[in-house]
Amino acid sequence: MGTSEEQALKDYADFQDKVKRTIYLDQLSPQVTSGVIKAALAQCANVVNVEFIVNYTVPHDIPSSALVELEDEGQAKAAVELMEDFPFIIGGMPRPVRAIYAKAEMFRDRPPRPGVKKDFSWVKQGDDGYEAMKKMINLAKRQEAENLSLIKSQLDEEKELAKQQQESLDGNCKKYDLLENVVQNGTIKNLAHRYGINLDD
Question: Structure pTM?
Fold first, then answer.
């Protein structure tokens, strides 16, 4: 086995180890930075690297996603389980962050698999496989249109969810402000005296 082939095998083995200790995060606010992710995951893992995945195909301001490399496979497991068991919100998004184990196909800089050779050729009308490729192109266009419609619907739903959450938060803040005013202006003592309640108990 040649040196280049040995190096290719080693590089691919190292990449597979990297995949095992990496998680994929979705539903991140566009304002979230690598520092924010590191701080959020500090309770269960040490973040080695964060690579944000940019979606150039969707003309909407959609939630971000990222590949987060951790120190080892055990930390990756702990992080995924944490976000499966508890709502985990990073950066104020109305939906909790989703986390899954990363897959090799998610990495844009993944090395070629040793021993696998890929051949490419242009296909024009009349060639074998032209009709099949045309069907694939049409199917991809249809899926793109369906995906855009689904994303728009999801964004509208999240906007309404964020509105409801803000209204609930504002309502709770008003209640706490009211309670604080009752304590500070002495009204609570008058109420306690009227109803025969000892505040020292």
Answer: 0.65
Tell me the C-alpha distance between 190 and 197, whole Å: 10
CB 90 within 8 A of CB 10: no
The phi-psi region of residue 92 (left if phi > 0; otherwise alpha if psi is between -120 and 50; otherwise beta) is left
Average confidence (pLDDT) over 48-55: 89
| pLDDT at residue 1 in the model | 47
* 56 has pLDDT over 80: no
Q: Tokens standing for 38?
A: 């590191």
Q: What CA–CA distances, in Å, run from 109 to 72, 102, 104, 176?
A: 20, 14, 10, 51
- How much is the pLDDT for 131? 87
Cα 189 from Cα 195, distance rounded (Å): 10
Helices (H) and strands (E) in the chain, counts: 5, 4
Residue 17 to residues 34, 106, 157: CA-CA distances in angstroms?
22, 14, 38
Structure confidence at residue 138 (pLDDT)? 92
What CA–CA distance (Å, rounded) separates 145 from 155? 15
